[in-house]
Amino acid sequence: MFDKQTIEQLNQYLALLESDIVFKASLDESESSKKVRTFLEEVVALSPRLTLVETKLVRTPSFEIQQPQGDSGVCFAGIPMGHEFSSFILALLQVSGRPPKIEKPLVAAIKSIKQNLNFETYISLTCHNCPDVVQALNIMAVLNPKITHTMIDGSMYQQEVENKKIMAVPAVYLNEEPFANGRITIEEIVEKLGGSENLNDVSDRGVFDVLVVGGGPAGASAAIYAARKGIATGMVVDTFGGQVLDTLGIENMVGTPYTEGPQLMRQVEEHVQQYDVDIMKGQRAKDIQKKEYIEVTLENGQTLKTKSAILSTGARWRNINVPGETELKNKGVAYCPHCDGPLFAGKEVAVIGGGNSGIEAAIDLAGLVKHVYVIEFLPELKADDVLQKKLHTLKNVTVITNAATQEITGTDQVNGLVYQDRSSTTTHTLDVEGVFILIGLVPNTEWLPETIETNNRGEVIVDAQGMTNIPGIFSAGDCTNSAYKQIIISMGSGATASLGAFDYLIRQ
After folding, report:
1. What is the CA radius of gyration of the chain?
2. d(Cα 297, Cα 265) in Å, to the nearest integer?
3. Segment 158-217, tens digit of pLDDT
4. In sequence order, which residues have a C-beta less than 8 Å from that of residue 299 and are 6 or more positions away?
5. Cα(490)–Cα(496) distance, rounded to whole angstroms?
6. φ/ψ (deg, to 5) at 225
7. What percent of the chain has pLDDT above 90?
8. Nearest Cα residue to 358 out of 333, 334, 324, 383
9. What residues pair up with 162 in beta bridges, in sequence order?
10. How far is CA 81 from the centre of its chain?
11. pLDDT tens for residues 210-259?
């Protein structure tokens, strides 16, 4: 099951185990169980600290990771390969006794939870958002004996997925009731459980020299460049990583032929943490005003003061704003083909959007689903020629141009898409069970006051130094009027804004 490179990686991590580990596995003679058995036996063969013991668990096949005399509450119902391989490795290390890399207040908040919590997360092995959720809940299970967590591979437990009508992953259940859908951070989980009173306290921070609002590539770059100047730097971060976490293959990062969004942003976060940056996670800004200092008001009501600020709040996927989109989100309406595509295997789906993102999604989905309909509003596709040529080689793809989506239909889940032919004004219906929407980005700037100038698209207008019309307030990345929206351009604009802020400060 493992290639030579994977075995070498495993050996390196197994050498870091703090204690012996027992895999308690529930197995039978099914093909799925045989695959799980092979996986575990190959891992156990790599270290004398590992043992495989068969037992009876809630699901077969599944396995728990335990210390010989302990109960970690961490369970995998499936084979944690693909994007979940890192979840498996981290679970091994953390169950063995290596502390998770989270802040002490968060550890205390998790340990203070008193109720019994049984989490289950349905995932697909191709989902690059799922591991963050799995790893967060595994950490909680390791830290608190009242918490358990099971990762469930939806492809191995298809009947459960069908019964629960799960059409988007990760899908988290708590005590057999729906809890969360999509990416959610460990801070957000704790907050949702009502145990985050101390986590939201950002008082007594003093006055920053530079306060960065946003944790994507632009914000991270800005924080690094500011901290390297030796000035007091803070970051207000909702989710560290931003929209890049939704990006799978990245092949245009200069010097790095290939990486993936979550991997890149984990490395970026580790880079930021090497400097003296006060990262305040799980926080959203709701206002910014320039008074004696620049004051950033957070959604929790607290206010941070700074001598300069860098707005790097990024952008999000644009909605099509038709009936059914909001009502059927995560019930067939999706925005991430890599995450949710496997759930539509053998079904017919539609992709709305003929740009690069939409056509890349259609190509990926064509290898999984029965048929893909590409719906483009304009008379022709906008994607790069190389993508269009690839698309046209696929026999299970139909391209419909000059089409205006009117409605996404369904009750409990999507059952169709209605569009109008813009040339003839005739209306047509497609019998699809999934609709993937990829029509571009909208900047996350609606929270800004009118005093900060934006263009007609809501993008912050900045000068060559990254400064807005208000002295001391800078902006960078996809929330600005930059001509192109690319990771490397956002990183560069973050550096520019940070250097601009430093020049501004030394002239005050």
Report:
1. 24
2. 26
3. 999 999 999 999 999 999 999 999 989 999 999 899 866 666 678 789 999 999 999 999
4. 283, 284, 285, 286
5. 10
6. -65, -35
7. 85
8. 383
9. none
10. 18
11. 999 999 999 999 999 999 999 999 999 998 998 898 777 788 899 999 99
Tokens 């493992």, residue located: 2
285 token code pair: 């800004």
Question: Does residue 315 contact residue 342 with C-beta atoms inside 8 Å?
Answer: no
Are 54 and 36 in contact by the 8 Å Cβ rule? The answer is no
Both tokens of 119, joined, read: 């989490």
Calpha distance 216→223 (Å, rounded): 11
Q: Is the pTM of this model over 0.70?
A: yes
To the nearest 10 degrees (0 to 180), the angle between helices 217-227 and 487-506 is: 40
In the block, tokens 């309909």 appear at 373
- The tokens describing 120, both together, are 């289950």
CA distance 475 to 212: 9
Task: Tell me the residue ranges of DSSP E strands in 74-124.
Answer: 74-77, 117-123
What tokens were used for 413? 């889940």
Please report the sign of the dihedral spanned by the C-alpha atoms of residue 477, residue 482, residue 486, residue 489: negative
Is residue 83 within 8 Å of 126, Cβ to Cβ?
Answer: yes
Question: How far, in whole angstroms, is CA 349 from its chain's centroid?
Answer: 23
Tokens representing 84 are 């979940």
Instruction: Quote the tokens at residue 248.
Output: 């799978």
Residue 417, strand partner residues:
408, 430
* DSSP structure class, residue 90: H
pLDDT value of residue 198: 62
Residues ≥6 apart with Cβ < 8 Å to 33: 27, 60, 61
Q: How deeply is 233 buried, as exposed, middle or buried, from its count of CB atoms within 10 A (0-12, 13-18, 19+)?
A: buried
In degrees and rounded to multiples of 5, residue 400 shows phi and psi of -120, 110
Helices 85-96/4-14 angle, 10° precision: 20
